[in-house]
Amino acid sequence: MKAFFTRTAIGLQPADDAAREALAGVPLGAEVACDVTRPRNIRFHRLYWGLVSAIASSIGAQAETVSDVLKVRTGHVRVIKTKDGLLEFPASIAFSKMDQAQFKAFYDRCCMFICEEWLPHLKASELKTQIEQMVGLPTEEAA
Questions:
Q1: In angstroms, rounded to a whole number, what is the distance separating the alpha carbons of residues 66 and 127?
Q2: Given this model, what pLDDT does residue 138 score?
Q3: Predicted TM-score of the model (pTM)
């Protein structure tokens, strides 16, 4: 079962009733294993698609095509071996495939690539600020 917790000064606390119920079934003092990930932040998702859509509309392309180019150029790919060699295909950025830390790193790589290859007059931080203003959502960056 997947359960969500909130980090507090005294440790992890259940974030909802489902997490409380899951934890209630664990005896005091028992060891448990968990994978610590941060759920995806919808704001980053909206910022990414705002960025991709802005580029797509400026060059007359589909947003999905720009997204695929960014995935390939930043190394976010699936590699398939064929008899003729290796083929790279854009990998998924679905919520179930990337946690917040992974998606933030991907978004940062996209902004760096865009500034290095397509908009060399901008710094990545400036691009991010412009996209945040355009979408109307400041990011809540992880500490």
A1: 16
A2: 67
A3: 0.73
Determine whether 94 is exposed, middle or buried from the number of CB atoms within 10 Å of its CB (0-12, 13-18, 19+).
Answer: exposed
CA atoms within 13 A of residue 80's CA, in its CB half-sphere? 6
What angle do the packed helices 42-59 and 124-135 form, to 10 degrees?
Answer: 100
Rounded distance between C-alpha atoms, residue 42 and residue 142, angstroms = 14
Tell me: the pLDDT tens digits for 14-35?
888 888 888 888 898 888 888 7
Q: How many CB atoms within 10 Å of residue 39?
A: 11
Q: By the 8 A CB rule, do 44 and 107 touch?
A: yes
How many residues does the structure list for the chain? Answer: 143
Q: SS3 for 122?
A: coil
The distance from CA 88 to its chain's CA centroid, rounded to whole angstroms, is 20
Is the CB of residue 56 less than 8 Å from the CB of residue 42?
A: no
The phi, psi pair for 27, rounded to 5°, reads -60, 150
In single-letter form, the type of residue at position 61 comes to A
CA 138 – CA 43 distance, rounded (Å): 8
Give the SS3 label for residue 99: coil
